[in-house]
Amino acid sequence: METTFKKEFAQLLHVPVQNLTPDYNLTRNAEWDSFTIMYTIGLFDKFFQKKVNTNKLVTCKSYGDLLKLLGNEYVIKN
Amino acid sequence: MSSKIEMIHYVIPEHAITNSDLNQRFPEWSKEKIFKKTGIKNRPVCAKNEYASDLAIKAVEEFFLNYPINKKAIDYLVLCGQNHDYLTPSTACIVQQCVGLPKKIGAIDINVGCSGYIYGLSVAHGLIQGGMARHVLLVTATTMAKCVSPNDKGLMCLLGDAATVTLMVPDSASTLPQFVFGTDGSGARELIITNSGMHSNGSKPYLYMNGPSVFNFILEAVPESFQQLLAKANYTINDIDHFIFHQANNYILSHLREKLGIPKSKFLIDMENFGNTSSSSIPILIKRASEKKQLKPNSKLLMMGFGGGYSWGGVIWNWKKE
Questions:
Q1: Across the strands, what pairs with B317?
Q2: Per-residue pLDDT averaged across B238-242, rounded?
Q3: Which of B31, B56, B134, B151 ranks highest by number of CB atoms within 10 Å?
Q4: Chain-centre distance for alpha carbon B304
Q5: Mean pLDDT, to the nearest integer, of B30-43?
Q6: Quick one: which of A37, A77, A35, A42 has its CA closest to A61?
Q7: Active site (annotated) includes residue B276
Q8: Do B7 and B167 meet the contact criterion of CB atoms below 8 Å apart?
């Protein structure tokens, strides 16, 4: 499931999916803007049926930070 | 006695903000990028000295030029909007006088944002069903775009201004519409015009939207009330001909459609040249879909509005030919 999430998230950021390692810096990507942050909520809902804390979402700096919002039950690959 | 939508008319301001305009202001966002992110090319926006009443008056005057009904036949005016001209009097009162509607009518404002059209329909229908009025003008006048800070890239890309008029009349042949409503004031500060009303501190009021929180609210409230509405009417998705949701944002609409399992062919989206026009978005879409012959007579429409408040609502309505 995470792989598909990752694929669609990579499309939102306009980066190759293999670039999305846990330490990938979101804040250096110009695509990580207010719209993409909002659309990420849609991806969480679509792939994990999970509602995330939006205050924490806007402070995410890396892809790993983003995955941590999902909680321990989701294994972070890569 | 049920009611029906007899006619819809809409107007938009003369000036529009294009993606090129936005690109000039925010060079880091290309025209293509803005369109890809929002599904919007143009957003009509009121001039500085143009207010909700001006748009509403224009819409109502054009309505009477286009539709053969005497102003004296109107019993009630219901006006939905969020940026009314004044705290008091109501914008509906200003419109009544300026367009020459009879003094014997009722005229009220409703302030519930993007769910406004659903609430307006419910009030108009209730007035007709209860025998208090026969001809109700339901007006939406939305001028949110003029409350957007020129530095707020996201909201500038999304919002447009518009006004619509819907004439509601009695109809003994129609089945009663089914409504659902919802309110959660815990979201009041997530979509708000700050420094407005009696809370004004003298500085210019600007619209603030916490987009992620609003999207979370939509994902929670809309699917639940959607299912409630279908259950209340004893329908399934297959029984509905067209799904017409508030035109919030292309991505949000597509996500909701997929989540709810609505076939693409039944889900109408039309915001490319309007943007998000709040409570005007549903009637504009219905009018344009009707003109394009997308709506068959006697088709069942499921409409849902959702937004500031938080406030949401839905209705299943039998569409009669205009």
A1: B301
A2: 97
A3: B56
A4: 10
A5: 93
A6: A37
A7: yes
A8: yes
| Closest residue on chain B to A40 (Cα) | B212
Residue A78: its pLDDT value, please?
Answer: 40
**Cβ–Cβ gap A30/B216 under 8 Å:** no
Instruction: Mark which residues 13-52 of A lie under 8 Å from B by CB.
Output: 30, 33-35, 37-39, 41-42, 45-46, 51-52
For B248-292, how does the pLDDT look when each residue is reduced to its tens digit (9 = 90+)? 999 999 999 999 999 999 999 999 999 999 999 999 999 999 999
**Interface TM-score (ipTM) > 0.90:** no
DSSP 8-class letter at B183: E
Q: How long is chain B? A: 322
Q: Which amino acid is located at A34 in the chain?
A: S
Interface test with B, best of A44, A47, A54, A55 (most B CBs within 10 A): A54
pTM of the model: 0.94
Give start and end residues of each alpha helix (H) in B10-148. 19-25, 31-38, 52-66, 91-99, 116-129
Please, what's the b/e burial string for B73-85 (b: 16 or more CB within 10 A of its CB; e: otherwise)? ebbbbbbbbbbbb
Integer Cα distance of B244 and B240 in angstroms: 11
Give every residue of chain A whose pLDDT is below 50, as ranges. 77-78
Sheet order of strands, B76-80 included: B2-11, B162-171, B136-142, B76-80, B106-110
Looking at residue A74, its pLDDT comes to 60
- Are B158 and B44 spatial neighbours (Cβ–Cβ below 8 Å)? no
Q: Do A35 and B220 touch (CB under 8 A)?
A: no
Give the contacts of B160 (CB within 8 A, at least 6 positions apart).
B12, B16, B40, B42, B43, B44, B45, B145, B274, B275, B276, B277
Q: CA–CA distance from B159 to each of A7, A48, B76, B142, B153 (Å)?
A: 30, 30, 29, 10, 11
Residue B200 has pLDDT above 90, yes or no: no
Mean of the per-residue pLDDT values of chain B:
94
With cut-offs at 50, 70 and 90, classify the pLDDT of residue B297: confident
Classify the C-alpha dihedral A37-A39-A44-A50 as positive or negative: positive
Half-sphere exposure of residue B69: CA atoms within 13 angstroms, side-chain side: 22
Query: Which whole number is the average pLDDT over B199-226?
Result: 92
- pLDDT average, residue stretch B41-61: 95
Nearest to A6, CA basis, from A54, A64, A72, A52: A64
Helix (H) or strand (E) holding B193: strand B191-193
CB contact under 8 A, B219 and A41: yes
